[in-house]
Amino acid sequence: MRCAHPFLAPQDPTKAPLLVVEGWLLPKELDEAIARFKSGNYVKVITTGGPVTANLNPQHTVDYADLARDYLIRHGLSGEIVTAAPTPASARNRTFLSAVMVREWLARSGQQVKSLDVLSSGVHSRRSRTVYRLAFGPDMRIGIHATHPTEYDPAAWWQTSAGVKIVITEAVSWIWTELFFHPGAQGTHEEKWGQAQQPVQNAKG
After folding, report:
1. For the stretch 104-135, what's the b/e string if a residue is b when 16 or more beta carbons lie within 10 angstroms of its beta carbon?
2. What tens digit of pLDDT does each residue of 148-178 get?
3. Beta strands in 100-161 (DSSP E)
4. What is the gyration radius of the CA atoms in the chain, in angstroms?
5. Among 28, 92, 106, 140, which is most exposed with the fewest C-beta within 10 angstroms?
6. What distances in angstroms separate CA 7 from CA 4, 33, 122, 154, one per listed residue?
7. Is residue 198 part of a domain?
8. Where residue 77 sits, what CATH number does that domain have?
9. How many domains does one find in the chain?
10. Are 12 and 146 contacting, i.e. CB atoms less than 8 angstroms apart?
């Protein structure tokens, strides 16, 4: 049990020039992203995340990527170094699709990077690194920063219901990803949107 949290929340950056920040993080975690940027060798930040619907206006949607970018800029980072790479709504694994969006943004911008670091939330971090490796392939080194949890003590996560729920859920999700998540080839429709469901035929057909 003591090893579960550090295993799922690794701290293993590559000293890359590019920091990818998952946009759905809490404000305190985004503050960690700012601190990581300032203490590292980063020259660029890319925020990710899909659409979120405002409760009071369900017809108006914004992206977590844009919300995170605005937060980082309002709290001290220059707008010139922070880019949002929004993720479209899809049945595909959301973190994986976010990684694909980052990969495509790098290709469009012509940036040649051999490594990047991802900042994710606590025990979600190992799964994030797994899917980024799937999206980019072996030619890209993927580092990881895990934010510090605020809902529980990571050294005794099993002593609180919040810790048990979060750690066990993420452990199961990471195992499922390692064993059963097989995206399509790079650039294919299946990679972004998942495998198309076969139409159900009725008994007469």
Report:
1. ebbeeeeeeeeebbbbbbbbbbbbbbbbbebb
2. 998 999 999 999 999 999 999 999 999 999 9
3. 115-120, 141-146
4. 18
5. 28
6. 5, 20, 10, 11
7. no
8. 3.40.50.620
9. 1
10. no
